[in-house]
Design goal:
Na+/H+ antiporter like fold; globular
């Protein structure tokens, strides 16, 4: 096993542990809650799978960005929620029922929605983007639904033990994630730097802001739900985004996705700070 294979294995293991820890504290009613709230589910789909893909389509059509950046935005716009996001949403005050229900619902629907959305982009723009249901199902199962279901099962069968295990499992998973991500960022840094220019940072920041605004507006009357959907609309699964972009002549697509993650993280932090300031002002 070479170093890169070891790093990728570490990343997969870390994501599994992070989501497992989430499942160890999750009840089945919370995980399936959004299917019992069809109006909220429609709002979520509107923000994530209508507004953001349409915005990506406009960017691809109008702006003269590097092709890798365009491809990355398209792939991200149709990808589901990243598996590590719910922990941040809960820390930001999100309700467990909506946060976890959204993760499960969008992950399940992604098996159908991602290939359909990618096919529409391929028809419209004659691109080489392609994603069959099988790889989407595999990624969703191994990075979200599988570890989450295992954690929920343990929580229901052995609630005391599950509660005690949740924190150490989350710490180990987070530590492995940090160790695995750092060398990838270092290796990808030259590619990331080469993509900066021609307004790329501004476009990525604007795209992230649009996702935050769409989710915030569509989230309903509860400010906690608005925050959860805003973060979900602006944050997408990088693994599925990379897998859905079949561009053999564009080697910089993974670097473009990493650039989006870095810039998007800064924009999301600013959003969360503004939300905390607003909430304090309302007290």
């Amino acid at each position: 096993m070479n170093p890169m294979q070891l790093i990728l294995l570490m990343l997969k293991g870390s994501i599994f542990l992070v989501v497992l820890a989430l499942g160890l504290k999750t009840s089945l009613p919370d995980a399936t809650s959004l299917f019992r709230r069809p109006r909220q589910l429609r709002r979520s789909l509107l923000a994530m799978y209508m507004v953001m893909p349409l915005a990506a389509a406009v960017i691809v059509s109008v702006l003269g960005l590097h092709p890798a950046v365009k491809i990355a935005l398209v792939g991200l716009s149709v990808s589901p929620v990243p598996p590590g996001l719910p922990r941040k949403q809960l820390q930001a005050g999100g309700k467990e029922s909506y946060t976890l229900g959204l993760l499960v619902a969008i992950s399940l629907l992604a098996i159908v929605l991602v290939p359909v959305a990618v096919e529409l982009f391929e028809i419209r723009f004659k691109t080489l983007i392609y994603m069959a249901p099988a790889p989407v199902s595999y990624l969703v199962l191994t990075t979200v639904l599988g570890p989450l279901a295992l954690g929920i099962a343990l929580q229901n069968a052995l609630p005391g033990a599950a509660e005690r295990l949740a924190k150490p499992v989350a710490l180990i998973g987070s530590g492995l994630l940090l160790v695995g991500v750092l060398p990838i960022l270092v290796l990808a840094l030259p590619g990331i730097v080469s993509l900066i220019g021609d307004g790329t940072i501004v476009v990525i920041s604007g795209f992230t802001l649009l996702g935050l605004a769409a989710g915030h507006w569509s989230g309903g009357p509860d400010p906690r739900d608005r925050t959860v959907l805003a973060l979900s609309s602006a944050s997408r699964h990088p693994g599925i985004a990379i897998a859905s972009t079949n561009f053999p002549n564009q080697k910089l697509v993974p670097a473009a996705i990493l650039l989006y993650l870095l810039v998007g993280a800064a924009v999301r932090i600013a959003y969360l700070k503004s939300q905390r300031s607003t909430n304090v002002g309302e007290i």
